[in-house]
Amino acid sequence: MEKVILITGGSRGIGAATAVLAAREGYRICINYLSDHQAAERTCAQVRELGAQVMSVQADASDEDQIIGMFSRIDAEFGPITALVNNAGTVAQASRVEEMSEFRLLRMMKTNVVGPMLCAKHALLRMSPRYGGKGGGIVNVSSAASRLGSAGEYVDYAASKGAVDSFTIGLARELAGEGIRVNAVRPGYIRTDFHALSGDPHRVSKLEPGIPMGRGGVAEEVAEAIIWLLSEKASYATGTFIDLAGGK
Ligand code: NAP
Question: Disulfide check for 27: which of 22, 41, 190, 207 has CB 3.0–4.6 Å away?
Answer without folding.
Answer: 22
